[in-house]
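Structure tokens please, single chain.
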Amino acid sequence: MVCSACGCEQAGVAQFCRQCGAQIAPPAGIPQQPWMPLGAYPPPVASMLAEQRMRVRQNLQPLGITWIIFGAYRLIVALVAYFVVHSLAAGGIFSDAPPFVPHLVGTLVPVVATLSGIMGLAGILTGYALLVRRPWARTLAIVLGVLALIKIPFGTALGIYTLWVLAPRASWAEWETMTRTV
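Here you go.
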């Protein structure tokens, strides 16, 4: 059998294309079976289900690029915060503050900037790994997507988008198919 959507050769009788996930019509003489769910629905619902099966393929490039941009943004903000606070501290801005403030800021800001920089690098790595379809990229993207939810508003939007694309069970199957064919 050959998939009518992408032209991929299928081994044996298959319900869905192993390359693109499109439904393959059963050969002539084989009746529609209950385990063939798309045929049981009216055509508009079946096309919506088929599009949902293509969610990862359709959104992978924008998602990867967005992760790279978000990671670069976090990395730049971390570097700017680190250098601005260090220059302000060296300029004596904390001279009127209580004695613990310069030590607190001098200790806390580098830690926060370092963590933000690490998350920025992880975001860039995630975006690159999604674009080149590394098998572990989906797991990393979901973990970072959950962590990004607390970074309002951009991180929240990216986290929701990442989870919408990669978290469903159907997305896992599509991701597995995509990473095997690369």
